[in-house]
Design brief:
The chain has 1366 residues and is α+β, with helices and mostly antiparallel strands. It has 49 helices and 33 strands.
């Protein structure tokens, strides 16, 4: 018979936590709250009941009852559909059932402890979508059972979609049947029928304590069974505590009963107390629900229905009980025989059993471990109890490491840290489920928080994953203390405490996991495959392959190993003689050998290592002699070794699915569960093969001195197979996380609905992140997981890791396997695998790509540059290396030259945004390029790469060296702009740009014209520097002038000072540049645009001698701007800035662009006379109003100095003015006098002096003007004094001024003889006006007569002079 064993996977580590949760409501009122869980109860997420539904339409569906009966969960084991949960208002009684109805609906029937029957209808979607897209169409129906109280706790058995049997007290059976199932919106119409198991009299006496006390509770039903659904047999079989088997018919009730005999003596069970009348005791079964009955029929004899009843014998040392086979025919029981259980079942508890064909499968709970036993039932035997001795075959889980204290001590023998070793052990795939780890860390955290004192911060921190939580919390309460006497750090105490803390946490994990592995039920799927359901795991019964079979026999010390495998028995015994420390050291040395390049023969290597290791000394002499003798008894060690290698590296490729034709119509199931089972099987067989292969290595070390006589190819093959198995073992123990992580942040509408429903459930499932093995992720790619061990063998064969014949080479399959892991993103695992392989070109390429993925760009570049020699016609690659390298290249073909490989490598670095290496390999490609190859893209990569790296010198050199002129002109602007943006203008202007300098100027000019002048970099200044560096001063001036014009149109708002300062700076730079050219060329040509009307100064109109219609399109008129024009604009802007700085309100009034005259006036009104005069002079503005205002200030100071001191400004407070002697009024008049001397002269016709005098006269005509003012006008404009005196009727002063003027004229005539009439001219008309006006006065001036006399005398002299000859 084919040997089988169990493989299983944890559900919480498999299925995502985003389950669909639906709350179920009840119409009952005032229902009691659920009872609090006890410490002895299973965890909430551990199932208390489970069943399997397997159909061709739905696949395999697992039903579990969780949270103490409050939740029913459906999980598809054949599809990727998310689990669905139904939360009930009360606890569900065992056992709910699920049925497929009319191939379109799933029906769940459940009875709660408050007396309600629920039917949940789940419409099914197409193509095995099940309930995935029909969640909103699920509708429940509730029925109140009239014969049940609200605190009912009996046994429930669902016969089918139309019948439910409920056991009541004293063996009464309540049968619920319905002929009509309500549709959506209507309830089921159930009919309730009560049946008694005896006569009417017995039913009455059962209520009399005196009569029925001796058998109280004996008739309680502990197990019920019906014929598997669908069926037309409506009978119900029950077994009561007194081992009475009864048959109940639908309309009649109990029609047959039979007391089943126990094959054990009453001493083996706890007997009931003897009755008062001395009757013998009745051995009762336990009162809790048990699976003790199964009903089945055979195709050969359909009229007979068979009942298989199990009678446990708990205290028996011979077996766990016996099965009694009974035939039901014509409402009568006929005992066929008894099937004794195996001796292995002693002290075990039967959890479930089932009959498939002629095979009986029994699920035992053996101290918390699941064990499945199988035997054959012969229903054709009619010889009473003689069924023959049963032949039982047992199936257990394969041997695996358990984290016992002894095993933990072995882990500490390795040099790694305690925390790392223990953490790696508990996180190993398949060791503990996510639920177990979460529960254990929660319990650990609660225990630590209960300690006195403030908790460590690690206990109150929220972690993203369970692994992070464990790594941070476990051991956080252990502190490194100092010895109170010596002050030395107590490291030994610290490590001991930390070790105990980790051991305590691991003990918690083992305790929770032990509960999670409690067996619950058996099921069947597909072609009779047995499914084992545990509280938190689901497994299957699968066939052993040869390595597993041999490993199990060796572990059990079985002597009946095939003769061709005798060497394995010897090696296993030899291994057992070596201690854990020796095994660990040997394994470490072996790994070191495999991680090094093979430079010597394997015989020499093993001899050297055996001498260094003193391997023979680890075994006592007697044992050594025994082993030598046993090995000598083997005829051909070489052949035996090759046989074992064939076992380790061989696969039974004949194990194929026999239903290939069916699969063409129905694809095989592909789910996470099937992949997890295949993963578990693969991991188990890998570990078995590793143990067998390591035994061969031990043989080589034991026979190290004789290896020189061995075939070198055999030694190489042993090490090659060991390397492959070790790599597979490494992969199997590597966790891979959740394959759905990429979609973790994406929410579908169903996810949102599910989350909304979860808010209504207080006892919803905790969020567990699914964890997978790396093999699980690899299987997800292949999709071939159906049929074990065939799927496992096909996967192992596809890896190719066991096909190598020498560790000195890396095959194509080994390199491809590493590449697959790299592409999946498991970089550390890939690096570990590559460390086992020699550095062949294919391995080197994968390693370089791996370094590239891990951010080690320099290492990747080094390897790829070395690899370039493997390409081209002159490469020296072997066929194997060439095949492996070609397999991992993107194009799956070998590049024909180094140039092609360099281009490919440059593309790799470009994809990773590693510009430096991209440029480097592009340069290498250019260095080996052949004639006629287009290198435009490579040159562009080099130039742009250097620009991106900021290596502008190299970028310029590459630009100049490029043979493509068009590319040069395209890239020069990119280089220019990047250097400008990187503030490398000093370097930019030093570049010659031979032949393409005009492109640089055009690029800078474009930016200067179109970029906002306020932003950085300032392209106008850069272009200015470019022109200045090359001596083109006029273009430099033009650039700055255009910048100033652009800034002029910029709104200055709150930051006016900076932008106005920029504009002022632009004018100044423009002026400086123009001053560097010849005087005749101090001008620039500016195109006339539409916005020239906004120029700060009106220029003369340009004469247009050519009509505008004669201009070609795109041409514009131009304007010549002289240096003086620019200076004027500079002065005006400077004045505007000054006045705004002193009066910021001008900006808010939007009156910044004041005309020059207004600026001078504002400065004068602010008493800023120095600035006002300087501004007016530079802008050629008339200062009449300014001097009028200044004169008024002086007059006010003269009249009342104290009243105007508060209004004085810098014109009186400057160091120069304040140092003058005299009063304030005197200093003011002196300031006025010096201002007139500076800004008024004959060139201005003394108009400012005139206006000062006139202002004084207007202010007070009676006052005497300052003498210096009169003296100035007498020297320059005497006539103005006479007119002004006449105007203000100051006749005395007018007469005085006339007489003074006449004296001056006479003196001039006397000194110089007059040459013409003008030389003796006097304003006689004005004098006549004075004389006439003075004569009209009531009191003529005193000197009027004198003036007349002087005039007469002068007239006479002039007559005489006129008569003289000329």
């Amino acid at each position: 018979m084919e040997a089988r064993f169990l493989v299983a996977t944890q559900l919480s580590s498999l299925f995502p936590s985003q389950t669909i949760t639906i709350p179920i409501q009840t119409a009952r009122r005032n229902i009691p709250l659920p009872q609090n869980s006890k410490d002895s109860d299973p965890l909430a997420e551990h199932a208390t009941y489970a069943s399997i539904l397997s159909t061709q339409l739905t696949g395999t569906i697992l039903l579990r009852v969780l949270h103490g009966g409050m939740i029913i969960e459906l999980t598809s084991l054949s599809t990727e559909v998310s689990p669905i949960r139904f939360v009930f208002p009360a606890a569900v009684l065992p056992s709910p059932a699920i049925f497929l109805w009319e191939s379109s609906e799933l029906h769940i029937l459940a009875v709660t402890d408050i007396g309600s029957v629920y039917r949940l209808v789940l419409p099914l979607g197409g193509s095995r979508d099940l309930w995935q897209n029909r969640v909103d169409d699920i509708w429940p129906r509730e029925y109140f059972v009239k014969h049940l109280s609200e605190s009912f706790s009996g046994l429930v058995h669902v016969q089918g979609t139309h019948c439910i049997a409920i056991s009541l007290s004293n063996g009464v059976l309540l049968r619920l049947e319905t002929e009509f199932m309500g549709h959506e919106g209507s309830d089921d119409n159930w009919t309730e029928t009560l049946f008694q198991h005896g006569s009417f009299l017995s039913s009455l006496t059962s209520f009399l304590p005196a009569i029925g006390s001796s058998t109280s509770g004996a008739s309680e039903i502990v197990s019920m069974a019906t014929h598997p659904w669908p069926t037309d047999i409506g009978h119900i079989w029950t077994l009561s505590r007194d081992r009475t088997l009864r048959l109940w018919k639908a309309k009649i009730g109990c029609v047959a009963s039979k007391r089943l005999a126990s094959l054990t003596t009453p001493r083996e069970l706890s007997p009931a107390p003897r009755t008062s009348n001395g009757t013998s005791p009745i051995v009762l079964l336990d009162i809790e629900r048990q699976t003790l009955l199964r009903v089945f029929s055979t195709p050969d004899n359909e009229d007979h229905v068979y009942v298989l009843a199990f009678i446990p014998t708990v205290s028996s040392t011979a077996s766990g009980g016996s099965f009694q086979l009974i035939d039901t025919f014509s409402d009568q029981f006929y005992e066929i025989g008894t099937i004794e259980c195996s001796t292995n079942s002693a002290h075990c508890h039967l959890q479930d059993f089932m009959v498939i064909g002629k095979s009986l499968y029994a699920l035992w709970d053996c101290q918390g471990q699941s064990v499945v036993e199988k035997t054959v039932i012969n229903t054709d035997n009619s010889n009473g109890r003689d069924l023959g001795p049963p032949i039982w075959t047992s199936a257990l889980y394969a041997d695996g490491p358990e984290l016992t204290p002894a095993y933990l001590e072995e882990l500490l023998l390795s040099p790694e840290s305690l925390t790392d070793r223990f953490f790696e052990a508990i996180m190993r795939p398949g060791m503990f489920s996510t639920l177990t780890l979460r529960t254990a860390i929660d319990q650990y955290t609660d225990a630590c928080l209960s300690l006195p004192g403030p908790p460590p911060p690690q206990l109150t921190t929220i972690y993203a994953t369970v692994a992070e939580n464990i790594a941070a919390v476990v051991g956080c309460t252990v502190n490194l203390n100092r010895d109170p006497n010596t002050g030395a750090l107590q490291h030994a105490n610290y490590w001991n405490a930390l070790k105990r803390d980790w051991e305590g946490f691991i003990a918690r994990c083992r305790e929770v996991e032990r509960s999670a592995r409690w067996p619950l039920a058996l099921g069947v799927q597909d072609q009779g495959e047995i499914v084992i359901v545990e509280r938190e795991r689901v497994g299957a019964l699968v066939a052993e392959d040869l390595p597993l079979h041999l490993r199990r026999l060796l572990g059990q010390g079985h002597p009946s190993v095939d003769s061709q495998y005798d060497i394995l028995g010897v090696l296993w015994t030899l291994r057992s003689k070596l201690g854990p420390q020796v095994i660990l050291n040997l394994e470490s040395r072996l790994i070191d050998i495999m991680h090094q390049e093979i430079a010597f023969s394997f015989a020499d290597i093993l001899q050297d290592q055996a001498r260094r290791f003193n391997f023979r000394q680890a075994i006592d002499g007697a044992s050594t002699n025994w082993f030598i003798g046993r090995l000598q008894s083997i005829d051909d060690i070489d052949k035996a070794t090759r046989t074992i290698l064939d076992v380790i590296g061989g696969f039974d490729m004949e194990i194929k699915r026999e239903e290939d034709e069916v699969e063409l119509l129905l694809p095989p199931p592909n789910s996470d569960w099937s992949r997890a089972l295949a993963t578990a099987y693969i991991s188990t067989t890998i570990h078995a093969r590793y143990d067998l292969c390591f035994s061969l290595i031990i043989l080589l070390f034991f026979l190290a001195d004789e290896l020189s006589q061995w075939d070198p190819s055999l030694l190489a093959e042993v090490f090659a197979v060991f390397r492959g198995v070790a790599m597979l073992r490494l992969v199997s123990g590597h966790p891979a996380g959740d394959p759905h992580d990429s979609q973790a942040h994406e929410s579908t509408p169903d996810d949102v609905v599910s989350r909304m429903r979860n808010m209504n459930v207080s006892r919803s499932k905790s969020n567990f992140t699914p964890t997978y093995s790396l093999i699980h992720r690899l299987l997800a790619q292949s999709g071939d997981t159906h049929g074990l061990p065939g799927a496992a063998h096909r996967f192992l064969d596809s890896t190719g890791l066991l096909q190598s014949i020498s560790p000195a080479h890396a095959t194509k399959f080994e390199v491809l396997f590493c590449e697959r892991l790299r592409l999946l993103g498991f970089h550390y695992a890939t690096w570990e695998l590559i460390s086992w392989l020699p550095r062949t070109p294919g391995v080197t390429y994968v390693l370089a790509r791996l370094w590239l993925n891990m951010g080690r760009a320099d290492d990747a570049a080094y390897l790829l540059e070395k690899l370039a020699g493997s390409f081209g016609p002159d490469n020296a690659l072997s066929y194997e290396d060439q095949e492996a390298l070609t397999a991992v290249l993107p194009a799956t073909e070998l590049y024909d030259s180094e140039f092609a490989f360099y281009v490919h490598t440059s593309t790799l670095f470009k994809a990773c945004l590693l510009v430096r290496h991209e440029v480097s390999f592009s340069q290498l490609a250019l260095s080996v390029v052949s004639q006629g190859v287009d290198t435009t893209a490579l040159w562009h990569t080099v130039i742009k790469g250097f620009i991106d790296l900021g290596l502008y010198g190299d970028a310029y050199a590459s630009l100049i060296a490029s043979p493509h002129e068009k590319q040069k002109r395209e890239c020069v602007s990119l280089l220019t702009y990047r250097m400008c943006e990187d503030n490398a203008v000093d370097t930019l202007v030093t570049f010659n740009f031979a032949g393409i300098d005009n492109e640089v100027e055009d690029a800078l000019s474009f930016k200067a014209r179109n970029v906002d002048p306020r932003v950085r970099p300032c392209y106008s200044k850069i272009l200015y520097s470019w022109y200045i560096y090359r001596g083109d001063y006029r273009n430099a001036a033009l650039v700055m002038y255009q910048r100033a014009r652009k800034l002029q149109g910029t709104p200055f708002e709150s930051s006016h000072s900076s932008f106005a300062g920029d504009q002022l700076e632009a004018y100044m730079l423009c002026i400086n540049a123009l001053n560097l050219v010849e005087d005749k060329n101090m001008w620039i040509v500016l195109p006339v645009s539409n916005d020239m009307s906004e120029a700060p100064r009106k220029r003369r109109k340009l004469s247009k001698h050519i009509p505008e219609t004669m201009f070609s399109s795109g041409c514009f008129d131009t304007e010549i701007v002289q240096l003086s024009d620019i200076q004027y604009e500079y002065a005006l802007l400077s004045a505007q800035i000054d006045i705004v700085r002193r009066d910021p309100t001008i900006i808010s009034a939007k009156d910044f662009s004041l005309p020059a005259s207004s600026i001078v006036l504002r400065l004068a009104q602010a008493n800023l006379f120095n600035m006002a005069m300087a501004t007016a002079c530079s802008l050629a503005i008339d200062m009449t109003d300014l001097f009028i205002h200044l004169t008024g200030q002086c007059l006010r100071l003269s009249r009342n100095p104290d009243s105007v001191m508060g209004d004085t400004s810098d014109w009186l407070l400057t160091d120069k003015v304040s140092s003058w002697p005299g009063s304030t009024a005197e200093r003011g008049w002196r300031y006025l006098r010096q201002s007139l001397e500076r800004y008024d002269s004959a060139e201005t016709d003394c108009r400012y002096t005139k206006v000062v005098l006139e202002t004084i006269m207007d202010f007070d005509r009676s006052s005497s003007p300052p003498p210096w003012l009169i003296k100035t006008l007498e020297d320059n404009h005497h006539e103005f004094l006479i007119r002004l005196s006449l105007k203000y009727e100051q006749f005395d002063q007018a007469i005085e001024h006339i007489m003074t003027l006449m004296r001056k004229s006479d003196a001039r005539v006397a000194r110089d003889s007059p040459k013409n009439a003008f030389s003796t001219w006097l304003p006689y008309t004005l004098i006549d006006q004075v004389l006439a006006a003075a004569s009209t006065q009531d009191f003529p001036p005193s000197r009027l007569a004198e003036l007349r006399s002087e005039i007469n005398n002068r007239m006479k002299r002039m007559q005489r002079l006129s008569q003289l000859p000329r």
